Amino acid sequence: QWIYLDDRFVKKEDAVVSVFDHGFLYGDGVFEGLRAYNGNIFKLHEHIERLYQSAQSIMLHLPYSKEEMEDVIVETIRRNKLETAYIRVVVSRGPGNLGLDPVNCTKPNVIVIAEPLALFPQELYQRGLKMGSVASRRNRPDVLSPQVKSLNYLNNILVKLEANQAGVDEALMLNDQGYVTEGSADNIFIVKNKKIFTPPVYLGALEGITRNAIIDLASELDYSISETPFTRHDVYTADEVFLTGTAVEVIAVVDVDGRVISDGIPGEITNHLLTEFRKIVTVDGVH
Ligand code: PLP
């Protein structure tokens, strides 16, 4: 396995970073998770845009142009002879001293890892997930924007731990006003009377690339879809609930806080969107 690290490709065993890297010391950096389907990197441009926006927001200056960054990602899957892969791009502040001031970090570290895709079991898509709301709240946008995919994912990790403790598959994260935002690493949608809703991102959800692709796809398929604030009550009483994300694609939720959603099986619209989504992923991207 070849890893892109610090301007070159190195073997996995040699892919090590300094303990003085502020990505390690402070979670100071940004990342992206992408997916390649049959050699096609799904929404590469969108992921690159989001990476650069995350970096701009935390005053991290990437040492490459967007085009160079895209080339590095494409080359990483080529080198590893992968057609279908999960790709992780990490940009850390780089090595500095023990103080947290990034001013002492001279050069960001750019890392690209591509691995064969560990597919979620098909059985999970047929069964659907159990979700539970958690006490931790989505961080407020006036502090650190939820749009920044920062290396400091402790908030999301705590939420995941809460979900594990509660014995559910995924966490339902609310904002500080109690509106539904998203899962620990995926966006949420509900369906009511054949209409699809997802929370507006200003409530505190990451503007997921899969989320946006599903909004476009649903409109093309003539579904009514809108960004509307909703609460847990709306989720409990929905006809269908599903999550979207690079890793999960589209996955049904059949139980939320012990409330069984409809018949407790993945809904018709959810299944339709998943089927259609899997058709577009191999064409809508960069080869
Ligand atoms: N929400 C959070 C907090 C995430 O980390 C992710 C994963 O990237 C998502 C949602 C889903 O976004 P995307 O569809 O771009 O993978």
From TrEMBL:
Print the keywords alphabetically. Answer: Amino-acid biosynthesis, Aminotransferase, Branched-chain amino acid biosynthesis, Pyridoxal phosphate, Transferase
Name a biological process GO annotation.
Answer: L-leucine biosynthetic process
Please give the GO cellular component terms listed in this UniProt entry: cytosol
Supply the InterPro entries for this chain: Aminotrans_IV, Aminotrans_IV_CS, Aminotransferase-like, B_amino_transI, BCAT-like_C, BCAT-like_N, Class-IV_PLP-Dep_Aminotrnsfr
E.C. designation(s): 2.6.1.42
The pathway this protein participates in, as annotated, is: Amino-acid biosynthesis; L-isoleucine biosynthesis; L-isoleucine from 2-oxobutanoate: step 4/4; Amino-acid biosynthesis; L-leucine biosynthesis; L-leucine from 3-methyl-2-oxobutanoate: step 4/4; Amino-acid biosynthesis; L-valine biosynthesis; L-valine from pyruvate: step 4/4
Q: Which GO molecular function, any one, fits this protein according to its record?
A: branched-chain-amino-acid transaminase activity
In terms of Gene3D superfamilies, this protein maps to: 3.30.470.10, D-amino Acid Aminotransferase, subunit A, domain 2
Q: Which residues form the signal peptide?
A: none
Task: Quote the catalytic activity from the record.
Answer: L-isoleucine + 2-oxoglutarate = (S)-3-methyl-2-oxopentanoate + L-glutamate; L-valine + 2-oxoglutarate = 3-methyl-2-oxobutanoate + L-glutamate; L-leucine + 2-oxoglutarate = 4-methyl-2-oxopentanoate + L-glutamate
- Database matches in PROSITE patterns: AA_TRANSFER_CLASS_4
Q: What Pfam families is this protein classified in?
A: Aminotran_4
Q: State its cofactor.
A: pyridoxal 5'-phosphate
Q: Family per UniProt?
A: Belongs to the class-IV pyridoxal-phosphate-dependent aminotransferase family.
Q: What's the stated role of this polypeptide?
A: Acts on leucine, isoleucine and valine.
Name of the protein described by the UniProt record = Branched-chain-amino-acid aminotransferase
Its gene name is ilvE
